[in-house]
Amino acid sequence: MKNVTSIFLNGEFLQAREAAISPFDRGFLFGDGVYEVIPVYGGRIFRLAGHLQRLEASLASIRLANPFDRSRWAAMLDRLADSAGEGTLYLQVTRGVAPRDHRFPDVEPTVFAYMQAADPEPGMQTASAITLPDWRWTRCDIKAVSLLANVLARDEAARQGGNEAIFVRDGLVTEGAASNIFLVDGGQVITSRQDQRILAGITRELLLELLRGEGIAVSERDIRAGELATAEEVWMTSSTKGVIPVVGIDGRPVAGGEPGPLFARAAGFYAEFVARFRAGEVE
Ligand SMILES: Cc1ncc(COP(=O)(O)O)c(C=O)c1O
Q: Is-contact 191 204, C-beta < 8 A?
């Protein structure tokens, strides 16, 4: 597994080749589990409290008891993060190993996490997106490992030469296959309302906070799909990519096909916050 520097599985710290999970794990059989993806900058885990809070909400929504308290999660993740210092933590909790039956078993959950060192190659810098019908379930606020619709959507985007899919439900933009979506209209920054149709993105929340702090007008409201075509700018956000400009949608350039001026400011605020986090100045 490329760049995986350490693994935690059910109480043990292992190397990737030593880790094994039963094929009867309900994560494998049913997608019965939840997960988080958390950046690590300069050995510090970014927005950990927000991620652990969202994990608690996801676990409560699927009626799975949280196997660890916050300090145990933090200690375990710190140890994994130390194995690389810079990169991404992945964690997953599933309902455990049991004979295949839809009913909940009375077993211990499976707890799996790993640290992946940052790739020296720069990742995605701009996005080119397609829009697709959002035929996922109606609990997209749960960060569930069952991501078939998201995987199919990203694959469809790739087939069409792009790198993100923007979901549209009942004529409204919900979110990306692995991101939240922002647009700029009339100088105002707009993102979809936070409800069960979208994931409560940690990056979305931080960016809204930073923009508000800079006195930039933001609005959380329904976005009609047609607004994507007339927007001055479109951005996407995620923990692994930060803020990225979407420069094309469905084969048409967004505005001039170049990152817009408000994007440059927003990305600057975000980069500055990450730099201050690295330096231990902010949480
Ligand atoms: C469906 C979906 N929406 C939004 C996001 C962005 O969330 P975050 O900023 O917490 O990474 C992700 C992240 O992968 C996602 O998978």
A: yes
CA distance 151 to 14: 28
> Measured from the CB, is residue 174 less than 6 Å from ligand 1?
no
Do 110 and 45 reside in the same domain of the chain?
A: yes
Q: Which of 180, 197, 206, 237 to mutate to test the pocket of ligand 1 (most atoms within 8 A of CB)?
A: 180
Number of DSSP helices (H) and strands (E) in the chain, helices first: 7, 15
Determine if ligand 1 sits within 6 Å of the CB of residue 199: yes
Tally of domains within the chain: 2
Full residue range of the structural domain in which residue 81 is found = 4-117
Cα 12–Cα 18–Cα 120 angle in degrees, nearest 5: 95
Q: For residue range 122-149, list pLDDT tens digits in order.
A: 888 999 999 999 999 999 999 999 999 9
Please give the C-alpha separations between residue 57 and each of 28, 36, 105, 144, in angstroms, as whole numbers: 22, 12, 21, 11
CATH code of 18's domain: 3.30.470.10
> What is the percentage of the chain residues whose pLDDT exceeds 70?
100
Query: How many whole angstroms separate alpha carbon 125 and alpha carbon 103?
Result: 44
CA atoms of 14 and 115, how far apart (whole Å) = 11
Q: DSSP label at 105?
A: P
Residue 142 and residue 237 in one domain: yes
State the Rg of the chain over Cα. Answer: 19
Q: Does 163 share its domain with 105?
A: no
